[in-house]
Amino acid sequence: MKKTRTYKSDIKAAIHQTASGLYEAGLMDKKTMRGFDESCLTPVHEFTAEEIRALREREDVSQMVFAQYLNVQKDSVSQWERGEKHPSGPSLKLLSLVERNGLGAIA
Known about the structure:
The chain folds into two domains: 10-40, no CATH class; 49-105, lambda repressor-like DNA-binding domains (434 Repressor (Amino-terminal Domain), Orthogonal Bundle), CATH 1.10.260.40. The chain is 61% helix and 0% strand. The chain contains six helices and no strands. α3 crosses α5.
C-alpha cells in the first residue's frame, strides 16, 4: 500500500514526484531528497489544547463530529482540548490538513 502524501501545491507535487524518481534511480542522494520532502510536503506541527479547540470551533462542529472526521474517539478530542493528552501520527497530519484547508480537505 502506497503512502498518501499531501503537498503544499500542485507544482510542488510535480517537483517532489520528479525528485522521488531521481532518488529511486540512484541519481539523487538521501540528504537532497530530505530537502525536497521538507520544501514540498505539508508540514506537521504539535498542536496545543487551545489550538485544537480553536480549530474545531472555527469549523463549527461538536467534539463528536470532529472526532468522526479524524477517525478517533470523542474522548480523545476532549482530552486533547483539555491538554491531558496530545495527538500524534496520523491525527497530527489530519489536524494540519484541517488547519490549512478546512474539514472539507479530509471529508
